[in-house]
Amino acid sequence: MRIATYNVNGVNGRLPVLLRWLNETQPDVACLQELKAPQENFPREAIAEAGYNAVWHGQKSWNGVAILSKHDIVETGRGLPGDPTDEQSRYIEAEVKGITIGCLYLPNGNPAPGPKFDYKLQWFDRLITYADGLVKSDKPVIITGDYNVMPTEIDVYKPERWVDDALFRPETRAAFHKLLGQGWTDAVRTLYPNEVIYTFWDYFRNAYGRNAGLRIDHFLLSPQLKEKLQKAGVDKHVRGWEKTSDHAPVWIELK
């Protein structure tokens, strides 16, 4: 079973890229972030024609998350609990073939310090609280998406340039490691503990050509899935396509 995550950076504007990638790689499940489309403008017909059922949580102009599945899909959650005033569409959850899959788009947080960074850390705290319940449920769970955090120095090109950035500040990395400490497995790092692997390359300064990237899109697996993890990778070449996202799709395979 192949499960992928992809920050599409605008689902309608980059629909040809998304459909091309789905057709090429045929993941069983694809979690999307940064739809940048209101609920009614999600391209449901095109996604269905590509062979996928879908649940999505849209928002005008910003954010937005979706889960596509070749199999039956049942939505189990929408919006991250913990703050009833939070209107940003950053989390959706569904069950596919007995696996609970949470798709998230964690706040960027820049500039830091400041209100946006405070919101990022508050959102992270809510995620940690909610994830603790998931990991203790004894169910197979995946939480995947754009976490907007580079956990370690190997996850960022020239880390010394990022020390004050919200994606790499000590508070952000500490929150991610606190999350991992609940018993989650960082799938890509587990299979490739020492390799330089990036999932995002800025549009500026030929970042993709120079491989000056960041690893900010992650798969966290509950203990029930750790031993089922067989493969993981990044479809880096998709970042080189015309009119593509600044992220590349990331995927895992479970037996």
UniProtKB/TrEMBL annotation:
Its EC number is 3.1.11.2. Keywords: Hydrolase, Magnesium, Manganese, Metal-binding. PROSITE patterns: AP_NUCLEASE_F1_3, AP_NUCLEASE_F1_4. The record marks 217 as: Important for catalytic activity. The gene is xth. Belongs to the DNA repair enzymes AP/ExoA family. Mg(2+) binds at residues 7, 34, 146, 148, 246-247. It holds the Pfam family Exo_endo_phos. Probably binds two magnesium or manganese ions per subunit. Residues 4-247 form the Endonuclease/exonuclease/phosphatase domain. This is Exodeoxyribonuclease III. The active site is at 105, 146 (proton donor/acceptor), 247 (proton acceptor). One of its GO terms (biological process) is DNA repair. Its cofactor is Mg(2+); Mn(2+). The record marks 247 as: Interaction with DNA substrate.
